[in-house]
Write a sequence for this structure.
């Protein structure tokens, strides 16, 4: 948990978008009292600037601003070293990679991201960075760490150290991950685009094997995310009862060269099971829309299908790496949301997916992703109305994580936010 600012703080914006009522609730003439890192009160603006004992309270005036829950990125790779080849060679040393991760974390918080789910890091570096941020040594969002993804021997991202080929192996890696400080687990239900050994549509585990990881995560009160491109892997994740399905792309043997069409029956099964989908929407994809052509149009159609069938989304960018010629920088969070906008999702729906939806995928439902009494003071102040359009989401004035003001915009860096 992020170390809170000591003492009380009052935030006085013009408006508050709480995230309640399906993302539509707006409070006027209301201020936020923050105490011990939590939202202690939502009260009429202009209350006393001191406590009952006469102690002064820090007041942050935000005239013209709107405060909303901080953004949640439910799928990042802060240290996904994409200089690494598919055989695991060519990577930078851990000590250098950790510095890159810290810089990427700073960039994320600079655009208003206050919580991330780190879904693949080697050497438990995500745990190291999480703890450094929590104690105030580093600046960044709240990190929920999955550490080493569980994958078959030589499977997708095998070089991160989570190889397992049967139920006993899956249980062993899961328990080792939690012993190392993981907040949850990630299992590679199918292959992926970054590792050539297993086609991205081909299943790596059965539903029964994935269920072992689910049981281990549930025993520790953690999340369980299933990376799944092919429909068989998606079905296995549904049957196993995972927290979220990552990508959920319905790709077949044509891979990225084709347009993947979702099976409506499977989409209905996802919605009925209450499983979150994190479709990994990169800002790099939006910026290169013309070049991606039919593939991206298929992606938008899939997002529209999720909406029609009532699937709940968590926003994730898969940032921190580069896929082919398409960079996915960590600070292009809002550009990724434009894909939802283009697919017909309303602004309240986008706000829900980017805040409380992401929080649920992280295992933090009610604790962050909403502005209400008792939730963490993970907040972003914008110069504009977030319900009027996404342009306002890029006008960040202030960011607060766990009651600590950590605004970092305007800081220059020579480091790329893509691990390459």
């Amino acid at each position: 948990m992020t170390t809170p600012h000591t003492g009380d703080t009052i935030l006085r914006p013009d408006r508050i978008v709480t995230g309640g009522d399906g993302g539509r609730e707006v409070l006027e003439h209301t201020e936020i009292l923050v105490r011990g890192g939590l939202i202690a009160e939502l009260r009429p603006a202009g209350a006393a600037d001191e406590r009952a004992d006469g102690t002064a309270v820090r007041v942050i005036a935000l005239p013209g601003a709107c405060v909303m829950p901080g953004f949640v990125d439910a799928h990042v790779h802060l240290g996904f070293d994409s200089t690494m080849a598919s055989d695991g060679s060519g990577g930078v040393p851990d000590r250098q990679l950790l510095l890159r991760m810290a810089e990427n974390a700073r960039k994320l918080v600079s655009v208003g991201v206050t919580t991330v789910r780190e879904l693949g890091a080697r050497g438990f570096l995500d745990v190291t960075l999480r703890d450094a941020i929590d104690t105030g040594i580093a600046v960044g969002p709240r990190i929920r760490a999955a550490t080493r993804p569980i994958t078959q021997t030589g499977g997708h991202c095998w070089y991160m150290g989570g190889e397992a080929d049967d139920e006993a192996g899956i249980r062993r890696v899961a328990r080792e991950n939690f012993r190392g400080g993981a907040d949850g687990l990630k299992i590679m239900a199918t292959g992926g685009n970054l590792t050539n050994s297993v086609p991205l549509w081909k299943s790596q585990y059965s539903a029964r094997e994935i269920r072992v990881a689910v049981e281990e995560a549930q025993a520790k009160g953690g999340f369980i995310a299933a990376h799944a491109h092919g429909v068989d892997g998606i079905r296995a994740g549904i049957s196993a009862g995972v927290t979220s399905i990552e990508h959920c792309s319905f790709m077949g043997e044509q891979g990225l060269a084709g347009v993947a069409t979702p099976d409506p029956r499977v989409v209905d099964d996802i919605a009925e099971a209450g499983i979150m989908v994190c479709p990994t929407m990169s800002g790099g994809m939006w910026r290169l829309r013309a070049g991606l052509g039919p593939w991206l149009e298929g992606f938008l159609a899939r997002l529209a299908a999720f909406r029609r069938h009532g699937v709940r989304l968590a926003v994730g960018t898969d940032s921190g790496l580069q896929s082919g010629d398409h960079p996915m920088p960590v600070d292009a969070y809002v550009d990724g949301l434009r894909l939802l906008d283009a697919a017909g999702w309303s602004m309240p729906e986008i706000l829900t997916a980017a805040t409380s939806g992401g929080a649920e995928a992280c295992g933090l439902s009610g604790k962050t992703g909403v502005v209400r009494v008792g939730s963490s003071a993970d907040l972003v102040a914008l110069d504009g109305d977030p319900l009027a359009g996404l342009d306002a989401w890029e006008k960040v004035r202030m960011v607060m994580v766990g009651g600590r003001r950590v605004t970092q915009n305007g800081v220059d860096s020579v480091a790329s936010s893509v691990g390459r």
